[in-house]
Each structure stands twice: as structure tokens, then as C-alpha cells.
Design brief:
Elements (H helix, E strand, L loop, with lengths): L1 H12 L26 E4 L3 E2 L5 E3 L10 H17 L2 E4 L7 E16 L8 E15 L4 E4 L3 E4 L5 E2 L3 H26 L2 H9 L3 H7 L13 E6 L12 H15 L7 E5 L5 H13 L7 E7 L2 E3 L6 E3 L9 H4 L1 E2 H9 L5 E7 L32 E5 L9 E2 L4 E2 H15 L6 H18 L7 E4 L9
Helix pairs in contact: 2-3, 6-10, 10-11
Length: 461
Amino acid sequence: MIFRMILVLLACAMLLPGCATTTSAPQSPYLIAPAFKDLKIVMAPPEVDLSNNVVKEVPSCDLACDYQKIIAEEAQKYFADSLGAKVVTGSQEDYDVKLVMKVNKLMYKLACRYNWPSGGYYEHLTFTGVLEAYDSSNQLLWSSNDRVFAHNPSYDFSDGPAFDHGIAMSITSRLFFETLTKDLVTSNTLAKMQKRVGLTELAKDIHDLPPVLAPKAANNYAVVIGIERYRDLNKADYAVRDAELMKRYLTELLGYPKENVIGLMNEHATRSDISKHLGSWLLNRVNSDSTVFVYYAGHGAPDPITGDAYLVPFDGDPAYPDSTAISIKKLYESLGKLPAKQVVVALDSCFSGSGGRSVIQQGVRPLVMSNINKLTVSDNMAVLAASSGNQTSTSYDKAGHGLFTYFLLKGIKDSVVDNKALDLQSLYNRLLPSVQKEALLKNVVQTPVLLVGTGSKITLR
């Protein structure tokens, strides 16, 4: 009889708000780890599979809980504080590392302490989860094994079961991130990515811009394209970083208004995006006082039959260059018709199909002799290309940039600091031997090309 009364009292206690003294949720100590300040880390929306869950709850209590939201908030806070990195959540397009948490099974139960009514409620929440890390090409870098994490049922809360449920989920999430972040850092995955995207001493030379008051060039316009991550092709290393820094040089050193500089990166550099901005966007804006600057970093491709050279957009296919890529010949013709004072094109790409920043139709032999060196440009136009038609445009890993772009930017910066002329011929004379020398150290022949119209001297400033 007494035993039955105890059971009744316990059952009733489950329907009443808790009355234990308040104790704060435990704080997991943040990981003491290297600072990954150069990494852009995105926390994808957590994947929570509720189909295998075992949930025991009080029917009269509203325990509806946004599992994904709680996990995402805890993830962003924990990784930002413990790794020293910029961490964002949601669907982001530009990142170095994407972290994905997958909850495979969740078990939750609510009970009351046996010394009710003074003891209040306790919760026990357990889930099995996996943490995965991907690079910007969606390649798996690292994955933990399935781990089981349980919220310690000795913690008591006084705000009622609905509030307890959220806190239990938060605490369990923190335990998850604390443990698996240590595993992730120990794996050296983030350290390798940090080394890849971080600024080396060599890179700082071109990233640290002098405090120059550049004369405003209100009529100048630029389209800057960087495609590192393609929809269906291999990466073009450092292309986005090259393009982003080129934008800074245009606006901070060369006086281009920010609103006059368009940046098209990765999936924003489709064939239609590029064609629109290199066509009608420029045509509707430039005038006889304008300098137009077009920069491209990414893959090039040859037509193996005609030898025509193409820029490969994000959605391009080297098997069908005429319908999916940007013809260099047609691009030069289009830019030459602009009513501009001068047009400057810089291409950190190559068109041999032999690697580097070039691709070719599968099954076709590389080293196609592109006809890019034979093209002509209008009188007011100049083109700086990273390599000749049968060569490879390589990367400069010590600086984390394309080899050609590194020395092009260095030449611009040094000329501005020394207050020297910024004409294309002078820039070319400075970068040519440096690119050739560094390429030979990698056993690569790379000779940049300067193509100039018959008009007056082309300058950048």
C-alpha cells in the first residue's frame, strides 16, 4: 500500500513545475588551441535524424524544441571562442572549411527526484553524433567516429521541464563540440588549412598596402573574375584570393570607386554573369575618359580542333567550349568596341590544356597549340597574359597566389610606393624575369605575354 502511494506521488510530481533551487548550466572549458584567424569556417545546418529517437516526455508539457537551432548556436559560439576563427552558420558560398554535425539518434527522458517536492526535476538527454569537415570543393577532410554524448542527470533546474529540455540540449551540444574539437585539432586538419590560406611572410609583402591617397578615377570601371571552385572541374588554386586582392589594389591604390568595380567569384561567375558584365554592364557606363580594367583568374581551355582559346566560367565544360565558355577572340573584339580611352586585360590563366590553370576535354591530348598569341587588339587596348599559348600558368605556393598575379601586384605596389610610371610596358619588364625564374624552380617554363595595340602608351594610373 505504501509502495503504491509512493508511485502515485512520483507520477503526480511529473505533472508539476519543478521547485529545486536554481543551479546554472555547467560551462565546458574552451579549448586552448592555435588561433585559426585566417580560416573562414562555416557551420552547416545540423542534420538531425529523428526517425530513430526514443523520447519519453510528460504529455502535459510543451517540450517542442528546435534541435537544429540550439546545436547551430552552440556550434558557432564554441568554435569561435575555442579556435579563434571567424565562424558563421547557415548556407555560405565562400569558405575554407565547412563543419557538419549529424545527430543519428536522440534519447530524452524527464523524471523527478525521489525527494520530491524539494528536489525538482532532472533530465537525461543522450545523442549519438558525428562531426565532419569539408573543404571548399566539398571534399571530406576529416570525420569523427560515432560518439555517444549524455547530459549528466545530476544537474537540476527550477524553471520547469520545457525550459530544462532546451538547456539539456545546449549542455550536451557543448560536450559534443568540446570533445570533437579537440579531436579535430589533434588531427592537424585545421592546421594544414590554416597554412594554406594564411598569409606567409612573402604574401604580406603584397597584402600590406601603403597609406596612399590615390587620385579618384570616377570614370574608370573594372570587372574582376576569380574562379577557384568549379561546378564540375578541378580547382584553380588561389584564384579567388588573387581576384579579391586585385579588387583592393584597384580601389585602394589606383583610385577606382568601389561601386565601379564588379567582383565575380566562383558560382557568381557563370557564363551569363560574365557575359553580362563584360558586355552591356560596361557598355552602359564607360565614356571617352574611362579606363576599363578586366582581370581573370581561373581555368582556360583550348578548342583542340581550331586552337581557339576560351575562359572557362563556373559552369563551363571544356568539351563544349563554344557554347559554355567565353571566347578570347570575341572578348577582345567586344572590349575593343567600348567607347573608352583605354582597355587593360590581365589574364592569370593558360590555354594549353596541360594543367595549372587550364583544362581540356577528357580524352584529348594536352599541349594543344592555342592561337592566343596570334590575336590582335584594338589601338586603345593592352593585354597582359600569364603565359604563352602552349605553356602552363602555375601557382606560387610560397605566397598563396598565382605566380603571375603575385608579381603583377608587386609591380603595381612598388611603382606606387616609388612614384614611378604605371604603364603596361614597364610593369611587364619588371615581372617577366621574376615569373620566368620562379617557374623554372618548379621545372616549369612560363613566359608572360604583353599584347599592345598600336595606339598611345597604355597606363594604369
